[in-house]
Structure formats: structure tokens, C-alpha cells
Amino acid sequence: MHGLKVLELNGDVVHDFGIYQYQVSLAGGFSLFDTQQIIEKDGQEYLLYSLDIIEEYDGEYTPEFLKKRKNLLLTNLETNETEKFLHFPESSRFLNGEVFYFRDIRPVFHYDQKEELLYLMFQGENVMYKYDWSGEQPKLIDSQELNLKGFENAEGFPPGSIQLGQYSNFEKRPFPSTIINLSRLNSDLLISYAGTPEDKAAIAKVVKEKAFNETMDKLTKETPRGTLLLRPDGQLIPVDLPAMHYGSFKVIGDDIFWMKKPDPDVEAEEFTLYWGKLKIE
After folding, report:
1. For residue range 151-207, what is the model confidence (pLDDT) as tens digits?
2. What is the dihedral of CA 75, 81, 87, 89, to 10 degrees?
3. pTM of the model
4. Sheet with 72-76, edge to edge strand ranges
5. I need a labelling partner for 261 at 20 to 30 A (CA). Which of 114, 117, 219, 270 fits?
6. What single DSSP character describes residue 218?
7. Strands 250-252, 255-260: parallel, antiparallel or unpaired by DSSP?
């Protein structure tokens, strides 16, 4: 909750990075740094990342808050100067006059340094946004709605009905669909997601009974999820990845790095880091 460590691939810590802004109290579990990437622009190294709340908060959570919100931060790793940027695209559902849980509006992204392109999705929306970032600010050049089996786009709520910073609410919106990870692999993109089970009657039963019983276990197993390879022509191809902690992989070149707990069913602070080669046939 206090910052990030920037490491070389051999494990050497090269920078301890403090958080940009302490957060408004959140009503649920959260991770301050959900997606991050070290990038280089104009000969300088930067940390590109997002926080849950990155504007000053006056106590009101309204659609105007979302219109003003800047979704990304860029910190110079030498000077520690931080810039806030990237509003929601005009076509985004998050500007429809309603308010959303923070799980929905958090961005996942990848910056292609060679082509100076930024690929970005919001966790509650099945749309890939592509930005030209050859200039000072990214400019939206394309958007593509992806056909992800079982993915249900986030629904908004009337202003005042949910709390600012509330990560999610199982009773109001159980089993929400989520974009988990976005990585670049050569000319393709890897997208990981979790959808929403089809059995709405079973979902309603779990919410009403508030019991994590066999019905809950059944729904968890029936949740659509996976990783897909997105080709430049729009084709989506399922990809088999090794078992790992929830969405914890990074792709660097054709190497993939991921983490696992000793026992996936037991809470733990210890993880093992693995890496290997990705083969696309």
C-alpha cells in the first residue's frame, strides 16, 4: 500500500517508488497498483500506472467526477515528477450519466514502445482502445468491441446509489465480468478475462441465501474465463497458459513470467516466480 519496487530481471532493486497520492477509504478489497509498466520516452524512463482514485475528492461521486477523471499516471523515475492524463473516450459507457464501481473503470494497458502505440481496456468493458502516443499526449485512433464468451459489460447505477471508491458489491452485482490482463506478443495481444455464469437463478439463490455453499462452488466453476490471442485482423484465438495466481503474468519479448502460491486454495504471502517461452504456432 506504500509503493512499488522497480526490479531488474535478475531481482536487483533499482528504484523504490512511493505512491503518488494516498487513497480515499475504499469499501472493499483493492490493489493500489493494478497494472504498471516501465517505459521509455524521449530518452527518459517512466513508470506508467494507475491508482484507484487519482483526483482530489470533494465528497460527491457523480457522473461529472467520471468526466473529469484522468485514468493514468506517468512518473519520471529519475525526478519522481508525476503527470495525470487520459480521460475516458467519448464513446465509453462510463460517460453515460451513471456511476460505476471502481472495479469496472480501472484500466489495463500495454504500451508498445517501438510503434509508440498504447493499447488499453477498462476492466468492466469489452472494448479495446488503441492510441497513437508518438506525441506528448495519446490520441485515440481506433476502438474495437471484442466478442468474449460470457462477458457482460458493466451496468451503471444512479448517482448517489453507490459509494465513491467502492470496489464492487456482490449483492448488487454478483459475479461481475472483468478484464484481467493485457500484454503484447509480437504483433498480437494477449487478453485474459473472467465472464459471468449463465445460471442467473443460481446466482440469485446465492445472493439471497448469502451462503458460500455448493451452489457458489458450482457457479465459480462455471464462470467463463480464459486468455485469448488477438490478431491484428481481429481474430481471437484461445491460448493455453500454465496454472498461475489470478492473472499474474507479464510478457517481455517472447518470455512469459508468472506467479504461483504453494497451495492455490490456501491464503499465503509466499509466491514462486516462474518464466518460460511463449510459442505461437
Report:
1. 999 999 999 888 877 778 888 888 999 999 998 888 899 999 999 999 888 888 888
2. -40
3. 0.88
4. 36-41, 44-49, 72-76, 82-85
5. 219
6. H
7. antiparallel
